[in-house]
Amino acid sequence: MVNGLRLPDEFRQRIEDIDAGRVQPPAARHAATVVVLRDHPEHGLQAFLLRRVSSMAFAPGAYVFPGGSVDPRDADPVAWAGPSPAEWGRAFAADEALARELVCAAVRETFEESLVLLAGPTGESVVGDTRGEDWEADRQALLDRSLSFREFLDRRGLVLRSDLMRPWAHWITPAIETKRYDTRFFVAAIPAGQRARDVSTEADRVAWVKPAEAAARARAGEWAMLPPTLATLTELSRFEKVADVLAAPRRIVVQEPRGEIIDGEPYLVLPEEATHDYAQG
Predict the structure, then answer these.
(1) In the record, what terms sit under GO molecular function (predicted)?
(2) CATH of the domain at 143
(3) 44-52 and 67-69: which strand pairing?
């Protein structure tokens, strides 16, 4: 039995070219994604997912968590509460500068894609409902990069709340892909008073769903999903409440699937540490 996922035939040549050194894989861009969670009174623990529009170059039609690439201006110092960039760096095996960028990208991208904002007027408070024309104007300015994340926080007198997140995982897109990302995964509870909704031009559908249900839909072929998303949902399906997730000890191990030719066929082979979470519910 092959321990991997059968790939379309067009990957065969690319795998062979990379193995032979005829093709160099693109560098992976640093990125951050946040698994936004909530406790539903009837359904229990739920995660927020977006379905990427079919026109996207990377993972079209796939269900994903909010997130995206690091912007150069995410390096700008911002008002900060909670674990320091150095502490985040130790969690994710990153230097302090990169850790700052990753945390800022995580908070910024989550707001851009879901309106969930992990920031507050003080280090002990968090903003309430982020819907409204003024918030939408700022969100659009962040999207078109006419407003930096630091400028956004400064304009509103807000402090980034890094203590509202926890480190969860680290995945790198396999070398056989033409677009690659070096992505750190965070988990966070949606702040009280806030509501997530689809505000992204990159998504055509959103869903609050139990992790086990989402994973089952993916395994049944109903929902397209990349291995990191499915593995993460499978892990989360073992928890009953958001507090349990946030309190869970984590050892972050870099996971990077690889393309291989097995018995003449192209396969995506998952890291041994992730195989169980991907394959089993």
Answers:
(1) hydrolase activity, acting on acid anhydrides, in phosphorus-containing anhydrides; metal ion binding
(2) 3.90.79.10
(3) unpaired
